[in-house]
Amino acid sequence: MKEKIAEIQKIAKEKIAEIQNLQEAQELKVKLLGKKSELSNLLKGLGTLSPEERPKIGSLVNEVRKEIEEKLNEKEEFLKGKVLAQKLEKEKLDITLPGTKIKRGSKHPINRVIEDIQDLFVSMGYDVVDGPELETDEFCFERLNLAKGHPARDMQDSFYITNEYLLRTQTSSVQARTMIANKDKSPIRMICTGKTYRREDDATHSHQFNQVEGLVIDRKELNVSLADLKGTLEVFVRKMIGANSELRFRPSYFPFTEPSYEVDVTCFKCGGKGCALCKKTGWIELLGAGMVHPNVLKMNGYDPDKYAGFAFGTGIDRLAMFRYGITDMRYLYTNDVRFLSQFDRKDEE
Amino acid sequence: MKLSLNFVKDYVDIDTDVKTLAEDMTRVGNEYDLSEKLIPATKLVIGKVLECKDHPDSDHLHVCKVDIGTEILNIVCGAPNVKSGIKVIVALVGAELPGDLKIKKSTIRGEESNGMICALYEIGLDKKFLSEEDKNGIHILPENAPVGKDPIEYMKLDDSVIDFELTANRGDLLSILGMAYEIGAIYDKKVKPIDLSHGEEGEDLNKSFEVKVNTENCKLFLARKALNVTIKESPDFIKNRLIASGIRPINNVVDISNYVMLECGQPLHFYDADRLGNCIETRMAKKGEKLTTLDEIERNLEESDIVISDGKRAIGLAGVMGGLDTEIEETTKNVLIESAIFDSVKVRKTSKKIVRSEASNRFEKGIDPNRTYMAMERAVKLLEEYADAKIQTGIVIYDKTDKTEKEIDITVKDINDLLGTNISKQDVLEVFRKLDFSYSEKNDVITVVVPTRRPDISIKEDLIEEVGRIYGVDNIVGKLPVVPMKIGSVNKIDREIRNKMISLGLNETLSYILINDKEVHKFTRDSFEELRLLDPMTEDRNTLRYSMIPSLYKIYQYNKSHYIKDVSIFEIGKGFWKKGEEYGEDKKLCVLMSGEYYLGINNKKDVDFYIIKGISEEILNYLGYENRYSFVLPKEKIEEFHPGQVAEINVNGEVVGVIGRIHPEIEKEPVYVLEINLDRLLSKKVSKMKFREISMYPSIKKDISILIDKKITADEISKVIKKSGGNLLVKQEIFDIYENKILGDKKSIAYSLTFGSNSKTLTDEEVNPIVEKIIQNLEKTFNAELRK
Fold first, then answer.
1. B287 class by beta-carbon count within 10 Å (0-12 exposed, 13-18 middle, 19+ buried)
2. How many CA atoms within 13 Å lie on the side-chain side of B340?
3. What span, in angstroms and rounded, lies between the C-alpha atoms of B1 and B168?
4. How far does chain B reach from its first CA to its final CA, in angstroms?
5. Are the beta carbons of B461 and A128 separated by less than 8 Å?
6. Chain B closest CA to A86's CA: distance in Å?
7. Domain ranges of chain A
8. Which CATH superfamily is domain A109-340 in?
C-alpha cells in the first residue's frame, strides 16, 4: 500500500512538472485529486484495512494529497504569472510616440502684464477702476490743469472726434472721474489700466498703446508725500522689472502734478553698465509721476489745504516687450498667430 | 537747446567737464540728448603743404609732402583744392574722426600715405555751417597759422556742447543767462553781470519814429536805431558760438541778433531802417493780406496772425519770420532793432503753418519783459563794438507788461510735508540763496521773491519743487504710505471670459480700434452714427469701430496672406457709437475661427457653424445664462453674413450678439465669427450658483429616431418633445442627423431621451407611455414617422 502511494506521489510530481498551461493544470487537478482519482479510490478502500493500519494509511494519503495540491497550486500561480506577463508584453507601447494633442489658447502679452499690475496694486489696497476710451476734453485735459491753448493738448497730437470728444490720450482722465465720483471724500487708492491713443505712428510709437495710471489721495496730515510716492514706485518697479532695479527721480514738468518727476530705472538690458538701448546712460525713462497739482485737486472737488495726493503713470507696451524680450513693438499689434501662440503657458513665478 | 560751454562760461565760473555738467543738470530736471566736444576729432595738427604732385596712377588723387613741425609726412589727398604752400588740418596716424573713422598708415595705389588732410565736415562740423569752398574741399587755414599746433584751438573751436531737451515750463533755460543761473544754483556760483554799456548820439529817436501797437497780442514793443553799420564777417567767437548752438553765421549784424537771442532768450528782429520809414505797427493781419517772407515765399495771411507793418503794409510775421523787403542786406547802413513780446498761443499757431524757429520757440515758451529791455541794450552794445555802429539816442517804448516780482509765503513744514522729508530751515534757505531768489522771514513763514526770469514759479508747490530739485531728490528716502488696511478691488469678469476662451483653444489678439469708415456699419444691423476723426493719420484708420468683427477679420486676412489658415482668435474690446447727442462705447467679445480646430482630444475638424455656435453656448453657459438664450434668424438681413448661416443671440428677448459665416462673396474661405455685446449681456442678472440634489435613483434612457420634414428645425422638435415629456424627461440630446437622396425632403433625426425622478426608481411601465406620447405628438404636429 505504501508503495502504491509513493508511486502516485512520484508520478504526480512528474506530471506536474510537465504541465504547460492552465488548462492542463485543471485537467491534472481533476485526475489527481478528483473524486475518481487514485488517491480518492485509496481513501474509499481504507475500510478493507486493519484498524491499526487505517489511520496511518489515511493520514499518509492525506499528506500526499495535500502536497500534490500545493504543488499544483504553485504551478498554477506560476502559469498565471506567465500568462499575465505575456499579455502585458503584448500591450507594450512606444512611449516615445507623441502624446495626444489638446489645443491650448494663448493670452496676449499686454494683458498678461496688465493682470500682473492689477494684482500687485490690489494687494496693496488699490481699486482697479475703468474709464471711457472715448473721452471728453473736460476730463482728458481741462480738469487736469491743461487749459485750452496748452501745447500738450494740440489737435495734432490727439484724435479728436468733435471739438469736445476725443480718444483719451492718457489714462489720467480717470483721475478726475474718480475724484468727482468719490463724493464722501474718503481716501482714494486707485489704478486704471487700458488703451490710450495719440496721433503718432513710427517704429517705437503706436497710435494705440496701453498705460497704467495710479492715484492716491488722502488727508494732508496723513503725509501723502513724495517719499511715499517713491516707496510705492520702488515696489512697483522691483516687482515688474527686477528686484535689483534702482530708481532715479528726475525733476520734470507735467501740468497735472507739482512737483513732477520723470522716473528712470536701471537699464533692463545692460543692468546699468550703458548700452545702445539706454544711450549709454545706464538709465531707462519709465514713469511720469508727481504730487497732484493743487489746481487738479481744487477742480475736482478737493480742498488743497486739506488733501494731498500723488499720481503716476507708465506705458505698458514697453514693459511687455521687456518681460518677453519682444524685439519690435509692431509685433504687439500685428497679431500674427505665430506670435500670439507663443504666449500659451503660465508665466514663471 | 544746444548749450555752448564756452558761451555760458562768460557768465558763470565752472571748471566741470561736459559729461559731469550734463549729468548734474539731468539730476535737477534738465535732460540732455547728447553731450560732446564741438569737434570730436582727435590727433589733429596744423601742417603746411610743401609739395603737391598728381598721383601717377589716378586722375584725381594728389601726393603731398606736408610739414607738421616735427617731421614731413607723405600724404595722399583727393581734395580738388589741395596745392603746395597752403596751411591745412592734418589728422595724424591714430586719429579718430567722426563716423568711427580711424586714420591708419596705408598705401594708396602704390603711394604711401601717413595721415589725412581734412575738410571741416570731416572733423565734425555740419556742412550747413560751411562756406561753398569748405563744403567741397579741404579747409585752408590762414597763412600765419602756426605749423605743428592744435588747429581746433587755433580756430577757437575748442568748445563742448550739451543738447538739452527742456521741459515745456522752463522757457527761461532757452538762454545762456538762464542756463548760467541754473548751473550757478547747482555749483553755488554767482552769475556774472552782462555788459550793456554803449554810447548814444544825435536826436532822440522818439522825435522821429513812432511805435504803434493795435492788438492785445503784443504787450511790449521796443525800438532803437543803430546807424552806419559796417556789414562784414563776425569775429570768430561769435561765429563759433553760433555754430555750437546750431545757428548758421551769416554776417556780423544778423549774427548779433542771433547771439543776443541766445544770451538773453529774447528774439530780436533787425530791419533795414532806410526801407522802413518812420513808423512801425503791430496788429493782426487782415483778411486776404499777403506777405513775402524772407525765404521768398508769398504767404496768405490769416486774421489770427500777428503782423508787423510799416504803417501801410505787412513787413513781417511777428515772432516767426521777417519780410523780404526790409531784410538786412550787404548794403544796409542803418538798422532798426525790434525787441518785443508777442502772444505765445498766436505765435505757436502761426509758426506751425510757416516754420518753427529758434525765435518762435522762445515766444511760445514766454519771455521775461526785463530781458526784452536787456536784449535791446546788449544788441546795440555789440553792434557798436562789432559793426562799428553809432547808436541813436533814445528808445521808443510801448509797454503794458507787469514786472512785479511774485512773493510766495512758505513754511519749512509745507516743504517737508509734501516731500516726506526732514529738511532743516537752514538747508531750505540755502536753496533759495543758490537760486538767487531773495527772501525774508517772519516767524515760521518765509516770503520768497521770485524773479521775473522764472515765470514757471507761481505757487507754493512750485517752490517746493525747487527745493526738491536743488536739495536733491536722491536724498529723499522712499517709504510706503501708512494707510488703513483695505482690500483692493478689481472686476474680474474680463479675466474670467479671457481664461475661458483660452481654455477653448483660442488665441487672444489686440487689435486697433480705428478702421476705415467703409467698414464701420458692416456685420451689424444696429443703427448708430459713425464716429469719424477730425484729423485722421491715414484714411485706412479714420473712424472708430462699432463692431469688432472688421478688426478681427483684418487680422485673419493678415495671417491668411502669411499662409496661416488655422486661425482661432478672440478679443475683448470696445465698440463706439453716437446716437442723437449721446456718445458711448460698449465692451464686446469677438471671436473669429477658420481652418482646423481641435475638438477636445485628438479630434481635428474644419470649423463650421456649429463649432462657433458651440463656442457661443459654452461662454453663455459659463457666464450663467444656460437655458436663457436662443439663436434666431436676424429680423433684417445682415449683408456681410452667409444668409443661411447666421443667427442672432437672444437673451431674455434682447439681441446681445450675432454669429455666422462671413458671406462667401466677401471671403471664399469658410470664416466664422461671433460677437457678443458684453455690456448688454452682463447687465442681465445671473442667478446664484446653487447645489441641486443628486437623485439617488437610476435614470432610464430611451432612444427614438424619426423621419421628419427637412424644414422643421431642431428647436421646434425639441419644444414638442419637452412639452410631451413632462417632468420625468430630464434631458434630450440629438445623437444623429441623416439626410440623403432616398429620404428626399425628409431627414432622419435621432434623440436620446433621459428620464428620471428624485423620489423613485422609474420602470419601463411608467416611461414607455411617455415615449409613446412624445412620438404621437411628433407625428401629429409635424407629420413625423418613427423609424424602427
1. exposed
2. 33
3. 12
4. 93
5. no
6. 30
7. 2-90, 109-340
8. Bira Bifunctional Protein; Domain 2 (3.30.930.10)
Spatial CB neighbours of A186, under 8 Å, sequence gap ≥ 6: none
- A99 interfaces chain B, CB cutoff of 8 Å: no
With beta carbons under 8 A apart, name residues in chain A contacting B598: 101-103
| Residue matched to cell numbers 437622396 | B741
Distance from CA of B685 to the nearest CA of A (A): 20
What are chain B's domains?
2-27+161-187 (3.30.56.10), 44-154 (2.40.50.140), 205-399 (3.50.40.10), 406-475 (3.30.56.10), 493-682 (3.30.930.10), 700-786 (3.30.70.380)
Q: Provide the Cα torsion B774, B777, B778, B783; round to 10°.
A: 150
Q: Which residues of B touch A108 (CB under 8 A)?
A: 508-510
Test A134 with B583 for CB contact under 8 angstroms: yes
- Measured in angstroms, the CA of A42 and the nearest CA of chain B are apart by 57
**Taking CB atoms and an 8 Å limit, are A230 and B479 in contact across chains?**
yes
pLDDT, averaged per 10 consecutive residues of chain B (788 residues), comes to: 94 92 92 88 93 87 92 91 93 91 89 92 90 90 93 92 91 96 96 96 94 95 96 93 93 96 96 92 93 90 93 91 89 95 92 89 94 97 96 96 94 92 93 95 94 94 94 85 80 93 95 96 94 93 96 97 94 96 96 84 80 95 93 93 95 94 94 97 93 87 92 90 91 90 89 90 90 92 87
Asked if the C-beta of A128 comes within 8 angstroms of chain B's C-beta atoms, the answer is yes
User: By C-alpha distance, which of B568, B668, B685, B682 is closest to B615?
Assistant: B568
Which residues of chain B does A274 touch, with a Cβ-Cβ cutoff of 8 Å?
Answer: none
Tell me, what's the ipTM?
Answer: 0.84
B446: number of Cβ within 10 Å: 21
Site from A101, A102, A103 to mutate, B interface, most B CB atoms within 10 angstroms: A103
